[in-house]
Design a protein that fits this description.
By secondary structure, this protein is an alpha/beta fold. The protein is 43% helix and 9% strand. Helix 1 packs parallel to helix 2 and helix 6 runs antiparallel to helix 7. The protein is globular.
């Protein structure tokens, strides 16, 4: 059997940091490699979080840099290669060149289990490598398996195989219910998502052991493992759990999540950064750009300097236009109105979560 590497990427955000603490604490026997992909354009708070994690974990987090032989920051190196063409939601070359490619080069052809910090209250899949030697696991969710694995396990073509494996698994008082669910084909009236949810609701641990038995017949990395401790994991962690983990561990919440008051037209609002990533990330909301301008004017100025030859970070608007007094007033005023409309519905007391719910934007692949 090949030796399987277990890796966890630190993005500089709250979820991946909490996952590192969680895995290290709950599964200390797992030999986890911690790494972070450095673009050279992160906020200082990101690097501080990495240092805090290194102290807590008692290890050094490996910094991966694309274009390692270049004297320039990785982002600047590739920006020149792309002729000054700034990345955008339609052309995310920064994610590919600065995050995914360095990660895939780092793991090479070794069988790898990659732990991803998507929470139990998030409805997204996250990054799944196209390389067969990399398998993603999601410890914070009830369903720890990636969509490609679930698709195979619940495929109608694999029903008999899965049913045969189920006979060797103790589902306790749910044995008959599991058997009935496994006998039902996936069809329009009983979708794969419905079948998955029903199985998980019945017995998470039993289902995980069933999936693991199936994986033994495949070339997924976990096929090389005799056992896997997360099979018995029933935890589902949400936003509030993430903050609790970071605060109680002493690692702390990244400073850019801290709420800052601002006043406009007699009203007081609060803003902060809602995610990790480069200080000029194009996924930032307009109010976050204003946060950057007012909290880190030097970095905002540098972001402006990248806008050349018609390329701008925000579609249809330059950063210079965005900080015109009347424009900033409109952005802040409208933001306060949106928060007021949504705050009563928000489940979390944290501003960053209201930010996310208001605009609903995020970089699903920037988990590293």
């Amino acid at each position: 059997m090949s030796i399987v590497r277990h890796v966890l990427g630190i993005s500089g955000g709250k979820d991946s940091a909490a996952l590192a603490v969680y895995i290290k604490t709950k599964y200390p026997d797992l030999n986890i490699e911690f790494y972070s992909c450095d673009t050279g354009k992160e906020l200082d708070e990101t690097y501080q979080l990495i240092k805090n994690l290194e102290v807590y974990l008692g290890i050094q987090i490996k910094l991966l840099q694309a274009a390692g032989n270049s004297s320039e920051a990785p982002f600047d190196h590739f920006l020149k290669m792309y002729g000054g063409f700034l990345p955008s939601s339609n052309s995310r070359w920064c994610t590919k060149k600065l995050k995914l490619e360095p990660f895939e080069k780092y793991v090479g052809t070794d069988p790898v289990v990659s732990y991803v910090g998507i929470r139990g209250d998030e409805d997204r899949e996250g990054y799944i490598s196209t390389k067969k030697n990399i398998q993603s696991i999601f410890p914070f969710r009830k369903n720890i398996w990636s969509e490609d694995v679930i698709t195979k396990v619940l495929s109608n073509q694999n029903m008999e195989l899965i049913q045969s494996f189920s006979k060797d698994i103790d589902f306790g008082r749910f044995q008959d219910k599991i058997a009935q669910l496994l006998e039902r084909k996936v069809e329009p009236s009983f979708t794969r998502a419905q079948k998955l949810n029903a199985l998980l609701e019945a017995d998470v641990k039993g289902f995980n052991h069933l999936v693991f038995a199936f994986l033994k017949t495949t070339d997924y990395p976990l096929a090389n493992e005799v056992s896997f401790p997360l099979l018995d994991n029933e935890d589902v962690l949400v936003r509030s759990d993430i903050f609790t983990i970071l605060q109680e561990s002493g690692v702390g919440v990244p400073a850019y999540y801290n709420k800052v008051d601002f006043d406009i037209n007699g009203k007081t609002g609060q803003y902060a950064r809602s995610r990790s990533g480069c200080y000029f990330c194009f996924f930032q909301q307009k109010i976050e750009w204003i946060w950057l301008y007012e909290r880190h004017p030097d970095l905002y100025k540098k972001a402006i300097e990248y806008e050349k030859d018609g390329y701008t970070w925000c579609q249809g608007e330059s950063l210079q236009e965005l900080i015109e007094p009347e424009r900033m007033e409109r952005i802040k005023t409208e933001y306060i109105k949106r928060v007021e409309r949504t705050s009563s519905k928000a489940q979390s007391p944290y501003l960053i979560d209201i930010l996310a719910e208001v605009e609903g934007v995020g970089c699903a692949s920037c988990f590293i």
